[in-house]
Specification:
By secondary structure, the protein is of the alpha+beta class. Among the domains are: 29 residues; 83 residues, RRM (RNA recognition motif) domain (Alpha-Beta Plaits). The chain is built from seven helices and nine strands; from the N terminus they run E-E-E-H-H-H-H-H-E-H-E-E-H-E-E-E. Strand 2 and strand 3 form a beta hairpin.
Length: 270
């Protein structure tokens, strides 16, 4: 068998090294040339970890280099410790959230239990949009001379005390003629749709059922106040009475999501 010379290491000008070695394969001597470059990697570790690495090993590992020896050491699963925030951070976060709620005011402090929409109470639902906290846009723009004495003189309130919408600043008396006229106009353009599939929400009704109608001011699905699931009833307000009549003819008796719909006026016509 031919003699195999010792490997040679040659330092190159670019900092790399060329390693020349020989080996015997199939009765032939083969020359193997490798070019390697050493890279220094600096790793930052905790001081306590660095101190433990300097501990002297004992027994069978007395002369082993630093670090675990897989032949004698079994490594467990790596666990990441996530510490909870300190009490000071929790108090600062709580104060920040309270300030945010204070700035938002009362706009999101109450929600209708029937339709699940914020800004109005259950007694004013499901399709009387104008009975919200501060009235509809048309109410706010109505002339002041049609307001009654009750709406013109809002009651002084104390913080945290419930005040009916008609007694708030800018509120309108539900018994006034202007208020009744607005309600009658909304009723004339609103349909009540029953026998809806429970999975049909406001967006589904707008995009799939009411596609022929471009402008739909409001769609309200009546929901169970405890479970939040649809009760199969929805109130739809159209932009005009003519569109509402057209929708009544198209929707009544139509099949939608495996059910036959029934459409009628939200309030019987006189």
């Amino acid at each position: 068998m031919p003699e195999v010379p010792d490997p040679r290491v040659i330092d190159n000008a670019d900092g790399s090294k060329t390693i020349i070695s020989f080996k015997i394969e199939g009765g032939k001597k083969l020359k193997v040339t490798q070019r390697v470059k050493e890279i220094k990697i600096t790793e930052k570790v905790n001081k306590s970890i660095a101190a433990r690495r300097k501990w002297a090993k004992y027994g069978a590992e007395a002369n082993s280099p630093p670090g675990p020896n897989l032949s004698t050491t079994k490594l467990g699963e790596e666990l990441h410790l996530k510490l909870a925030p300190s009490l000071k951070e929790l108090k600062a976060q709580e104060a920040k959230e309270k300030e945010k709620v204070k700035q938002e005011g009362e706009k999101s402090l109450y929600m209708c239990r029937t339709c699940g929409m914020p800004g109005h109470f259950t007694s004013k639902c499901p399709f009387k949009e104008m009975l919200g906290e501060s009235g509809s846009t048309e109410e706010r723009e109505a002339p002041a001379d049609v307001a009654t004495e009750s709406s013109a003189a809002p009651m002084a309130t104390t913080p945290g005390k419930y005040v009916p919408p008609s007694r708030r600043a800018g509120g309108r008396d539900p018994s006034s003629d202007a208020y009744k006229d607005q309600r009658e106009r909304d009723d004339a353009m609103t349909l009540k749709i029953t026998q809806l599939n429970e999975n049909a929400d406001e967006m589904t009704i707008k995009q799939k059922l009411l596609t022929p109608f471009q402008t739909i001011p409001r769609v309200a699905v009546v929901r169970n106040k405890e479970t939040g699931r649809s009760r199969g009833i929805a109130y739809v307000t159209f932009s005009s009475e003519h569109e509402a009549e057209t929708a009544l003819r198209l929707l009544d008796g139509r099949g939608f999501m495996n059910l036959i719909l029934h459409a009628e006026w939200s309030k019987p016509k006189k």
